[in-house]
Amino acid sequence: MVAASPKSIRSEKILPIELPVVDLSAERSMVTKLIVKACEDYGFFNVVNHGVPRDTIAKMEEAGFDFFAKPMAQKKQLPPYGCKNIGFNGDMGEVEYLLLAATPHSIAHFKNISNVPSNFRRWDFMSEILFQSHVNMYSDELIYSLMAVINLGKRENQIGSVFGSDVCDCAIVHDSSTVSAYTEGVRELACEILELMAEGLGVPDARAFSRLIRDVDSDSVLRFNHYPPILNKDCKDKDKDKSPSHSHTKVGFGDHSDPQILTILRSNDVPGLQISLQDGVWNPVAPDPQAFCVNVGDLLQVMTNGRFVSVRHRAVTNSYKCRMSVAYFGAPPLDACIVAPSVMVTPQRPSLFKTFTWAEYKKVTYSMRLGERRIDLFRK
Ligand SMILES: O=C(O)CCC(=O)C(=O)O
Ligand SMILES: [Fe+2]
C-alpha cells in the first residue's frame, strides 16, 4: 500500500531474486514454454535478443535524462509532467515522470508530422485531438492529448506558444522521431510476446491478445520515471557510502500492479525495481540495461483466467545515483470487452472474472489509491 508520504522501508523483509531470462532468438516452442512458466510463477521476466535497436534505446534514454535535467520551473509547465504526486488520489513517491501517448495514432502523428497541413488552425486541431482521445471520459487523457499537441506544435512552430516558449526547449518534446521509433519497437515486441503467450497457452487465435494493442484505438501509454538519489534522513547511519544499501532507500513508485495488458519496462543500470511474490516480502531484481523486463498486467491476468499473475511491484530510490525507467503499457481500446478465450475456461478452472470493458476498469483504477487491489472488484 502506498502511504500518503514516502516512508522509511528499512523494516521490511527483503529477498533478492533472479528473474527468468527469455532469449527470443531461441527455438520457438522452448520460448513459448519459458514465457508461460515465467508468467505463472513470477508475472515478470527479462527478454534478451528482443530486436529493439540499441541505438533507439540509447537515444530514448538520452532524451529522458536531458528532459529531467531541465529546471523544475520549465518541467512543471508541461501538463504531462508530474513530480511526487502519483495519480489523483493522494499517492506520493520520490519520483518525477513524464507521460506520453503510445497509441498507433500518436506514433503515426509523430512520424508524419510533416504531413500536418501547414495552415491548420490551432484550436481546431487541438479540439480534434482532444476529441479523439476521449477527453470527456478521463482527465489523464487530457494529459496525453496535450502532449500530442505540444509535439505537433513544436514541430510546426504553430501551437507551441500555447504553453510558453520555455516548454519548447525540452528535447523530448520535439524529439518525436526518437519517441516514435522507441514506441514502435516496444509495441512490436509486446505484440510478439503476446502471440508467443497465446501459442504457449494453446489459444487457437494466436492474435487474441496482441490484436488489442495493435488496434488503432489502443489506449497504450509510455511513462518515463526518474528517481533522483535521496539520502534517507531517517537512517541513523549517515555515511554516504556508494553501496546500494537498503537502509538508504525510500519508496519512489509505490506498491501496485499494472492495470493494462502487458508492460515492457527498461531501466538504466541502477537497481530499484522490487516485486512481491509473497505478501510482506519484497524481491529486488537486478537491472539489465540490455534486456527488457516484461510483466503481466491485470487485464492479462483476467484474459488468462488467472493462469498468469499480475504481480505487485514498486521502485525504490537510493542515495548515490539517478535511476530512470521507461515503461510501455500495452492497453486495449476503451470499449474492448475483457474476457478470457474459451480455451482458458475448463471444469477444473471455472471462469474467475466478470466481463467488463477497459473503460470500466480504467475508471475504477483511477478512482482508487495506487496500492488497492482493484482486480478483486471484478471477481465473480
Ligand atoms: O521504475 C520502475 O522500475 C517501475 C515503474 C512502474 O512500476 C510503473 O511505472 O508502473
Ligand atoms: Fe508498474
Automatic annotation (TrEMBL):
UniProt GO MF annotations: metal ion binding; oxidoreductase activity
SUPFAM superfamilies: Clavaminate synthase-like (SSF51197)
Region named Disordered: 235-254
Organism domain of life: Eukaryota
Domain Fe2OG dioxygenase positions: 217-332
InterPro entries linked: DIOX_N (IPR026992), IPNS-like_FE2OG_OXY (IPR044861), IPNS-like_sf (IPR027443), Iron_ascorbate_oxido_reductase (IPR050231), Oxoglu/Fe-dep_dioxygenase_dom (IPR005123)
Matching Gene3D superfamilies: B-lactam Antibiotic, Isopenicillin N Synthase, Chain
Bias-annotated ranges (Basic and acidic residues): 235-244
UniProt keywords, alphabetically: Iron, Metal-binding, Oxidoreductase
Similarity comment text for this entry: Belongs to the iron/ascorbate-dependent oxidoreductase family.
Name the UniProt record assigns to this protein: Gibberellin 2-beta-dioxygenase 2
Species this protein is from: Cajanus cajan (Pigeon pea)
